[in-house]
Amino acid sequence: MAQYKYDVTMTCGGCSGAVTRVLAKLQGVDKFDVSLETQKVTVESSTLSEEEILAVIQKTGKAAKVATA
């Protein structure tokens, strides 16, 4: 199982809620964590690529990118 980390610009609970909703519905996501405080999203998946997950997060309208170390 791979773990991917993203920097996502979220300004309120509604923003983090939108990201949470799309990840909860996305088939292939085994586990995820959305942190409004740190503006980070961590996703574990054994079937989806880093780019596929990023595209889904970006569809919420939030600025998102793959996190650098």
UniProtKB/TrEMBL annotation:
GO terms for molecular function: copper chaperone activity; metal ion binding. InterPro entries: Copper_transport_ATOX1-like (IPR051881), HMA_dom (IPR006121), HMA_dom_sf (IPR036163). GO terms for cellular component: cytosol. Keywords: Chaperone, Copper, Copper transport, Ion transport, Metal-binding, Transport. PROSITE patterns: HMA_2 (PS50846). The keyword Ion transport applies. Residues 1-65 form the HMA domain. GO terms for biological process: copper ion transport. The keyword rRNA-binding does not apply. It holds the Pfam family HMA. PANTHER family: COPPER TRANSPORT PROTEIN ATOX1. Belongs to the ATX1 family. This is Cytosolic copper metallochaperone. It comes from Podila minutissima. The lineage of its organism: Eukaryota, Fungi, Fungi incertae sedis, Mucoromycota, Mortierellomycotina. The gene is ATX1_2.
